[in-house]
Task: structure prediction
Amino acid sequence: MTTKILAIDDSKTMRLAIKITFAAEDADVTSVSKGSDAVARAKQLGADVVLVDAVLADGEPSGYDVCRALKTDPGTAGIPVIVLVSGQTGADQAKLAEVGADDWLGKPFDTQELIDKVAAVRAKGSAKPAVAATPKVEKPVAAAPPVAAAPPAAAAKAARANRAANRTQMGMPSPTAPAAAPPSKPAARPAAVASK
Result:
């Protein structure tokens, strides 16, 4: 079953990188630059996972605000949210928990790690509402349906090959590429010839 991913990032480059990352996966990525209509877009798309940059353009809600809005709306509260955090600032674990984020990933990210995190939150589902919106539950919540089995080995091998090709096209090193050989020693200089 195709995973529907809503990617929210104000950087066109990051939106493209996310689309390329999932090009060889069984995923459909819809990317937008504004978080202000994230709840409506997630509902319209029927998103299975939302990826949101923690810091969006001026005048837009932050990624944390977007996550909180998704987790407090009954129509989107069950959608897993992964917050993408700049490597310079790091993740604020308390804030992530407060807004109900299911996971986070530092930017720049390793493409395989992003694929793995999306698969993990998708398989687990989301039962994490924002802390401020935690409702009192009177009835137990129904169990999630069983998760489909992993793809056959041949399909997994083909997906890895496609990801490697995508990395090469993006100019990124392959995680399985051998380490570069150390530079060779410079040739010995000939001894100076004494002049008479």
